[in-house]
Amino acid sequence: MVPDSRDLLLSSYDYALPAAFIAQAPMEPRHDAGLLMVPAVGATTSAARHGRVWDLLEELQAGDLLVVNDTRVLKARLQVRRAGGGRSELLVLEPRENGQWLCLARPAKRMRPGDVLTIDGTSIDLTVMAVDPASGGRLVQFPSDCRDAATIETLLNQYGEVPLPPYIDRHDPADADRYQTRYAERPGAVAAPTAGLHFSDELLAALQRKGIQLARITLHVGLGTFRPLEREDLSNLALHSEWVEVSADVIEAIRACTGRVIAVGTTSVRALEGAAQAHGGVLGSFCGPVNLVIKPGYRFRVIQGLITNFHLPRSSLLLLVSALIGRQTLLKLYQEAIDRNYRFFSYGDAMWIAPESVLPSAQASP
């Protein structure tokens, strides 16, 4: 589908959401979250169906393949003390060279190159090395053995906190487990792939018994995924890059799939479509950074369906879903979700976009 002029304007992806609709706590059990089932292309908005995530057991068919993101969220928020006793906070984002990490600092103006920070409650000192010009973050020297996500995880597990999004106003130790998917395995994210938070052990087992397969990619979610966009003209939109791994086993599972390839979450979409882009449009194994922009007009090459949450206004995630079903359809469905008291954002409810909901020009190809 060729995008119209409004599809490439940031203001076209705004919508009004009362604060009461922002979920502050997860649903228990996980699979009891609401599920809006997107109507087929050409149907009226009122044809949308409404249920629970557990209903995916009826919606999915034997032979379907669910592609999930197995990244694990680090306890990336660190409380630190500055020389002189002032308290500050670091959000540990990504490794750089020689034990340095890019961090967001708060308050940033009080953290200058050369400053020594001490992790709260410890004698572990960190040093601010430089200001990162691209992000405005700080390059911080950690102990020399903290060179990657696997090695820093021990330190963060002991002294860090789960970095819940700023719109969630709670401090509950249970989030250390609840803000992880049940299949989270590879550390490195600072935010959860939230569509996967709906899948309980019981639902995963029931899907497997029905003959629905699971394939795992890895995309370490960064803060950029959720940041509002700023430029009104989206024609030449550029996005942050995120580290992705799509293994040969995943490629084999997709090629052997006798049903539909369904992404669980926009991160799985970005990983699969980014891997295809890296191979000239043909899906192949891939390991490295992906900065793919998916917006109206994009031709999907891999996925044929999507399970996703309700996303923030003016976000790249709204553009991605609009590319699949159309911007106007998406915004009408969001309004219907508000009218029916769905819960939004990370701990909120979900949408199921089946192949018959996908715009014909966006249908995936082998």
Radius of gyration: 21 Å
CATH class of the largest domain: Alpha Beta
| Biggest sheet architecture | 9 strands, mixed
CATH fold-level topology of the largest domain: QueA-like
Q: Which sequence of SSEs, written as H and E, runs from N to C?
A: EEHEEEEEEEEHHEHEEHEHEEHHE
**How many structural domains in the coordinates?**
2
The CATH superfamily of the largest domain turns out to be QueA-like
The main sheet orders its strands as: 2-1-17-16-14-3-12-13-15
Please bin the fraction of helical residues.
Answer: 10-25%
Shape: globular
pLDDT average, as an integer?
Answer: 93
DSSP helical segment count: 8
User: Which residues sit in consecutive blocks of at least 5 with pLDDT less than 50?
Assistant: none
> What would CATH call the architecture of the largest domain?
3-Layer(aba) Sandwich
**Beta strand count:** 17
Structure description:
The chain is an alpha/beta fold and 366 residues long. The mean pLDDT is 93. Helices cover 20% and strands 24% of the residues.
Task: Give structural attributes.
366 residues; alpha/beta; QueA-like; Thrombin, subunit H; 9-stranded mixed beta sheet; globular
What is the element layout, followed by pairings?
Layout: E1 34-37, E2 49-52, H1 56-59, E3 65-69, E4 71-73, E5 77-82, E6 87-95, E7 100-106, E8 116-119, E9 125-131, E10 138-141, H2 149-159, H3 175-178, E11 186-189, H4 201-209, E12 213-219, E13 242-246, H5 248-256, E14 261-264, H6 266-278, E15 286-290, E16 305-309, H7 316-325, H8 327-339, E17 350-353
Parallel strand pairs: 1-17, 3-12, 3-14, 4-11, 14-16
Antiparallel strand pairs: 1-2, 5-6, 5-8, 6-7, 7-10, 8-9, 9-10, 12-13, 13-15, 16-17
